[in-house]
Amino acid sequence: VLAVEKERELWAAREQVSLNKLREQGIQVITDIDKQPFIEATDPVRMKFGEKYADLIKRAAAVK
Question: What residue ranges do the domains of the chain occupy?
């Protein structure tokens, strides 16, 4: 558990460094997005494969 927590901490720090480098180069980084249109656009995929991949779809939906 401690290793996982440390890895997440290191990853977040590295991600921030990378985002800062992009911004310094004038790249606009969009972090606040409305996910609802994507969710709606992919509804047919979930409907088609929902039964077979229900657990995977639930896990993907739970990611924040």
Answer: 1-28, 33-64
